[in-house]
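Re: [ENG-882] Designed sequences occasionally contain unexpected residues at chain ends

Forwarding the minimal case from QA. Structure tokens:
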């Protein structure tokens, strides 16, 4: 709750990506290894600690559309690429970049989405579906009212049209559905426990060796 309290005190309506993932990790949701840094040398040091390849993202509560603003650098493989990418982010014409998120690069072409929304009639509802760029295009998603049982979570996985993506398609390791169910159950519990959390969007959830990992996340807060 300290993360949310600090954000509310500064008048923020969203948590930064890093804060969002710290909050989710506190509730048992696996997230990428990452470090927040403010200097070029600090970014390089963080990259070496995490291990290449890495991702750089401009960070801040006001930066919820980093991709559209070209404030992300992917698949950086050495110090030179990392320093060059940082200089590019720093020189953005429209955004003053004060801190950068140095993040583990998770590869994989299976992307899922999960989240939380509040319905006026039903209250907190958990969402799950096909993620990445296909979330808005295909709208292949399922909803359940919180709290969720394990059976509810499993039914959500079976109810999307692209459910085969969770299996051993093209020789890939099947998705660990127990871990995925834990994520959905945790989101429901967050919705019931924290009235100040208005919305959560975890997109994408990537699959690494069969295990779901939150690569990007946004927590939206209700006005204080």
């Amino acid at each position: 709750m300290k993360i949310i309290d600090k954000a509310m005190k500064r008048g923020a309506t969203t948590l930064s990506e890093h804060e969002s993932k710290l909050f989710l990790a506190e509730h048992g949701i696996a997230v990428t290894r990452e470090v927040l840094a403010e200097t070029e040398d600090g970014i390089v040091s963080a990259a070496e600690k995490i291990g290449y390849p890495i991702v750089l993202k401009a960070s801040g509560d006001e930066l919820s559309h980093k991709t559209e603003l070209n404030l992300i650098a992917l698949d950086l493989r050495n110090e030179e690429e990392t320093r060059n990418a940082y200089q590019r982010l720093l020189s953005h014409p429209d955004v003053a970049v004060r801190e950068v998120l140095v993040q583990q690069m998770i590869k994989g072409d299976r992307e899922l989405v999960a989240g939380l929304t509040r319905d006026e009639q039903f209250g907190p509802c958990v969402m799950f579906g096909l993620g990445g760029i296909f979330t808005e295009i295909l709208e292949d998603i399922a909803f359940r009212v919180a709290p969720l049982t394990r059976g509810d979570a499993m039914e959500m996985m079976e109810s999307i049209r692209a459910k085969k993506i969770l299996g051993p398609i093209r020789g890939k390791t099947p998705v660990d559905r127990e871990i995925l169910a834990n994520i959905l159950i945790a989101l429901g519990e967050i919705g019931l426990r924290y009235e100040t959390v208005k919305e959560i969007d975890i997109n994408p959830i990537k699959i690494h060796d069969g295990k779901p990992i939150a690569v990007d996340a946004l927590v939206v807060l209700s006005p204080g």
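QA comment: On inspection the terminal residues look reasonable. The CA atoms of residues 206 and 212 lie 6 Å apart. Proposing we downgrade this to a documentation issue.
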